[in-house]
Amino acid sequence: MYGTPGYGAMGPRRRYGTAGMMGQPGMMGQPAMMGSAQMGGMHMQPHVNPTQQQPQQQHGGQQPQPSSADQEAMRRLQERQQLAAQGFGIVGQVLQLGAMLASSGHQLLSVAVGTTFAVRTFRAIARGEPIPNPMAPPGAPGGLSVGGAAAASTGAVAEKPGPSSSGGVGGVARKLSSSPAAMAALVCFVLVAEHLWRLWRQRQERLRLEEEERLLGIDAAGAMVEEDDAASLSALVPATTSRHAASPPPAASDGRMSAASESTFVARHAFEAAAANQLSLAPGDQLVIDDFSPDGWCWARVTGVRRIGGPSEGFVPGNFVEPLVPKRRL
Questions:
Q1: Judging by DSSP bridges, how do beta strands 263-267 and 286-292 pair with one another?
Q2: The pTM is what?
């Protein structure tokens, strides 16, 4: 048994993938053995396709290095990722700072912060300098980096522009398109302008509402006064002390008054006689007052040209006439 090919010390060997007989195909897709003599005393080598050894030999050696173009592409990809992280971090910080200031009531301060950041960013783009950090103090060169990156990475990403890419509208447009942080500054500037416009509209709306309330109050007060009767309205109006604006006194009794010297007077207001013993007046009529009465009436007669028809003498109210002052000659 020890010398029999295909048998081991403990019994027949079980070989998976081979039939153990010459000329019979093996199992599991393996090729058949050449003979039973090869199964005994020698070590069997697995059959390997020569074409499968070439990759192993190649991988066993030194791996090829990437080309300069690939390295440049990888470097630019890393720069874009850093710029994206920086831009989104700046936008987040600016919006957070603006929300914090606006919630605390410092709306003008939040507007000033956003405008200052936008101006500093556009100025840095035009000069080819690194984009500033909104959280950095004004005197700092660039402040701490955004998003946990080191300050050296920010400085390494920002490159000095060449003569063809700097200056002018084209250079600024290229910077805006290639830098997410610059786009973030532009977005902040637009947000600030929109915030200012919203504040202005709110103020105009508030002023308009206040004006409408004031006009409604005046109209309501006028309607209330119109609904009042004449007695309450006269009570609201202060009484005048002018004798010309006062109403004429009641009609005097018939008969001449006594103890009055003749004086020349002039009519200041028009008066229409309500009784036969009264004298109608027109403004400018010259009168001679003969008698005065304590009740306010006086007996007068018209001198000169009569402006209206009717009797030339009678009672007139004393507060409708005044003494005639002769004009002085120069």
A1: antiparallel
A2: 0.24
